[in-house]
Design goal:
The structure holds two protein chains of two kinds.
Chain A: E1 15-19, H1 29-33, E2 38-40, E3 46-48, H2 56-65, E4 71-75, E5 81-83
Antiparallel strand pairs in A: 1-4, 2-3, 4-5
Chain B: E1 15-26, E2 31-40, E3 51-55, E4 62-66, E5 76-82, H1 88-94, E6 101-108, E7 120-126, H2 130-143, E8 149-156, H3 165-174, E9 178-184, E10 194-195, H4 198-204, E11 211-217, H5 219-231, E12 239-243
Parallel strand pairs in B: 7-8, 7-11, 8-9, 9-10, 11-12
Antiparallel strand pairs in B: 1-2, 1-6, 2-5, 3-4, 3-6
Helix pairs in contact in B: 4-5
The chains are: A alpha+beta, B alpha/beta.
């Protein structure tokens, strides 16, 4: 009898975030907004703990709320950096 | 005791909100105070020292501003705006008309008053770094009626840049536990109070053990004052900082 459990790998979103450590000032807005994706490390600098902890909209809002634009957001489907806007 | 980078579980999670532009007080060419009334939701529960992020265009750009008003008033927020950089945030706010709606998210930030254990409180600000401290001082003195010794050092370049002086001086006259030391780095000859940088005052003054220090302003001030305090024997856990940028 086959295993009836339907185990799948779930892709929650297409946005991949990363933190530029040198820009982070420990404002923690990313952690407050997207606590499933970001945390502060032992030095108070933001780091990514999971790409799937929050949805794309929340990840983008966390990046846009960073006072120093220390979070980059890449659309993995197109390869385009959606935040900060690349023309800036 | 929480280190500043440990997330404080007592803080409310941020929420998206809309608010109506109600009032603007222009202090001088550089600084203005903006008042907003919450419209959706109708209240924002924040701790003194926290900030909000305001959306300033449809592309998603946002700017963060400390809440300057007392947390006892939850139906609205007051923000201090430094217009001197002339950036997109201050341009957006300058163009607001009374009654216009803004969209924001908040409250956010870890720069809040520590729990019990600090026997005196010292606030050290430069420039618009005074913004979160006004909220904290109003919270302590007017809401909590805190009896601890509370000292505020505020460094500015010249007297024309100052504001809220009457309010802080009024608190000094009413409350024996509150002390206020504005200091100017480029004073006019008629300025009779402190001159020099806030770091000079911190270096010269003595502080009682178990004092909590709250620093807000430019990174170099925070670095210099933190170094002085550490050399005076202050524990890093008693130094709380909010860097402006």
């Amino acid at each position: 009898m086959s295993d009836q459990r339907n185990v799948t790998t779930k892709q929650i979103g297409k946005y991949q975030v990363s933190v530029i450590r040198e820009k982070c000032i420990s404002a923690a807005s990313c952690v407050a907004i997207a606590g499933g994706v970001f945390e502060l490390d032992e030095e108070g600098i933001a780091r990514v703990i999971s790409q799937e902890g929050n949805d794309d909209e929340t990840k983008l809002l966390a990046a846009q709320s960073c006072p120093t634009a220390a979070i980059e957001v890449i659309d993995t489907e197109t390869g385009v950096q959606v935040w900060p806007i690349e023309s800036e | 005791m929480l280190y500043s980078w440990q997330m404080n579980p007592e803080l409310n999670p941020p929420k998206q909100f809309t608010a109506k532009f109600e009032e603007k007080i222009e202090f001088n060419d550089k600084f203005a105070e903006y008042h907003f009334e919450l419209t959706e939701p109708h209240e924002i529960g924040f701790k003194s020292g926290q900030y909000v992020s305001i959306q300033i265009d449809d592309a998603g750009h946002r700017r963060s501003y400390s809440i300057t008003s007392s947390p006892a008033t939850q139906h609205g927020i007051e923000l201090l705006i430094d217009r001197s950089p002339g950036g997109i945030g201050s341009q957006y706010l300058d163009n607001l008309k009374f009654g216009d709606s803004i969209r924001g998210i908040g409250p956010m930030g870890q720069f809040v008053l520590a729990g019990k254990g600090e026997e005196a409180l010292v606030f050290i600000a430069t420039g618009s770094g005074i913004a979160p401290m006004r909220s904290m001082i109003l919270d302590l003195l007017q809401v909590r009626q805190d009896q601890r010794e509370i000292v505020l050092y505020w460094g500015m370049r010249n007297a024309n840049d100052l504001f809220w002086l009457d309010e802080f001086q009024g608190l000094v006259e009413q409350l024996p536990n509150f002390h206020f030391y504005p200091t100017l780095s480029q004073p006019h000859p008629e300025w009779t109070l402190s001159t020099g940088r806030v770091t000079d005052l911190v270096l010269a003054h003595e502080f009682r053990p178990a004092t909590g220090f709250y620093l807000c302003g430019r990174a170099n001030m925070i670095q210099d004052v933190s170094k002085i305090l550490t050399e005076k024997g202050v524990s890093p856990t008693n130094i709380h900082v909010e860097k402006f940028f």
